[in-house]
Amino acid sequence: MELNRVLPELRGPMKRAQVSMPRWLVRIAVRLLIVPRSEAVRVTRARAGAATVRVYVPTGARGGGGLLWIHGGGLLFGDAKQDEALCLSTAERLGLVVVSANYRFAPEHPFPAAHDDVRGAWHWFLDHADELGVDPRRIVVGGESAGGGLAAALVQRLHDDGGVQPCGQWLFAPMLDDRTAARRELDAERHFVWDNEANREGWSGYLGTSPGADAVPAYAAPARRTDLSGLPPAFLTWGDIELFAAEDRAYAEALRGAGVPVTTDVVEGAPHGFENWARTTPAARALLDRAQEWLRAATA
């Protein structure tokens, strides 16, 4: 892909974000991240089944709503700490309690490990809603990239399980469809930050087999679900030049076709995950403003 397709303000941050490291080193580096701090938000950790959660509680006024957030990392790596800035900003600005979930990684822990972990984080949130001052009916499930895909699948699972439902889904460039990874012609595109070869590694590890088979287990690849009726309102955003653009657009259209209210926000010239690794740029700040306003309304 040609660099001139990237929004100029994102080109410098993108080059820094594309440093290549072995997966084991990425996993260590993410755990050692120096995270921002805020006097307006208290941050704690808790055990939620097989995984842990980071809990962000505003020290000032709280609105009674909540966000279950799921980090990205291609299903292969990552940590809740990598989204500290987003979680702090959301908790402080909106008065929401944010629970950010960790989960087990492929290929050591294939599906349904990560799915079960984030489902466990949802139930931990419900179990502790009273003490956190959260109305269980006003919790949105959200995530970025692989976390966005896990969030979408969790929303589907909760719909089928019954009981308390999320009031919305907040999806940033979600990784939804293993069939994208099976399209070898996309390898030549060399998408910035996350390309199809990396995508195939992530999906292969998660599914335990080559992506693109005729069928996959329920909730493994949320774009495979044919009946999306009854799911909560959705906010979906993606960059127009990223690998997931087509599958994210298709999922948004499928949700609309099933009668689900959908807000889409497509950022021109934005590679995958720019709202994270280029979060101080005008484009990322503007996107987060728009996304948080949607979230404010969804949890009101």
Automatic annotation (TrEMBL):
Keywords: Hydrolase. It comes from the Bacteria. The keyword Iron does not apply. GO terms for molecular function: hydrolase activity. Residues 67-275 form the Alpha/beta hydrolase fold-3 domain. Pfam families: Abhydrolase_3. Signal peptide: none annotated. This is Esterase. It comes from Microbacterium sediminis.
